[in-house]
Specification:
The chain is an alpha+beta fold and 136 residues long. It has one domain (2-135): SOR catalytic domain (Immunoglobulin-like, Sandwich), CATH 2.60.40.730. The chain contains two helices and seven strands. It has helices at residues 2-21, 51-54, and strands spanning 57-61, 64-69, 79-86, 91-96, 104-109, 117-124, 128-135. It has a four-stranded antiparallel β-sheet, covered by helices on one side. It has a three-stranded antiparallel β-sheet with strand order 1-2-5. The N and C termini lie far apart (32 Å).
Length: 136
């Protein structure tokens, strides 16, 4: 399990680093995330039919951020992890799920991040790494 956690943490940092560096050769469109590595609602790549059940949804209530991935949870196909990441790549919170969990929902309490760009991530064991960008 630690190997999976290390992989996911490194994936978030690599994705954030690539966004900051923005090498044009790996981007699908200017200002977007690396194609084939990070999927979004706007750029779902090969998973175009999966956006509704894989792209994380974000709800903000005061200092509380709730990430929901509307994805069925089963032993063979489930959301492995949610992560909340700042624009500079700092992991603000994360939650690992089990196939037996009923839903993929996580909640985080923010400190002083008002006016900040944040990223909510959702990792599916079959359909890769999904990201939603939002501001608080």
């Amino acid at each position: 399990m630690n190997d999976r956690r290390d992989f996911l943490k490194k994936s978030v940092l690599v994705a954030a680093g690539m966004v900051v560096a923005r090498p044009a050769s790996v981007l699908a469109l200017p200002g977007k995330f690396p194609a084939g590595i990070v999927y979004t609602k706007e750029n779902p790549g090969k998973w175009a039919k999966k956006t509704g059940s894989h792209a994380p949804e974000v709800k903000i209530e005061g200092k509380k951020v709730t990430i929901t991935t509307k994805h069925p949870m089963s032993r063979k196909h489930y959301i492995v992890r949610h992560t909340l990441v700042s624009a500079d790549g700092k992991v603000l919170g994360s939650k690992t799920f089990q196939p037996s969990d009923e839903k993929a929902i996580s909640t985080y309490e923010l400190s002083s991040t008002t006016g900040s760009k944040l990223y909510a991530t959702s990792f599916c064991n079959l359909h890769d790494f999904w990201l939603t960008e939002f501001n608080v």
